[in-house]
2TM domain-containing protein
Amino acid sequence: MVNFTLTKKTWRFKKRPLFFAHLFFYLVITSGLVAINLIFTPERVWSKWIILLWGFAVLLHELAIFFVNKKTKHL
């Protein structure tokens, strides 16, 4: 039988690249959206909502990866 329990360190190690990919895409895409916003509709700043909501999701992702309090994570 295969044991599907990972230690906290192994789980974090495997999930860390996914977090950094998420952070990279967040920074690239939101930068592009800010540029589009300022070029085409500078009188109305709509990109702040995307930055805030997606930034909150990135923060939750970071908390889940780097600040997990459980000893093990079951798959």
User: Anything to note?
Assistant: The longest strand covers residues 5-7. The two ends are 15 Å apart (CA to CA).
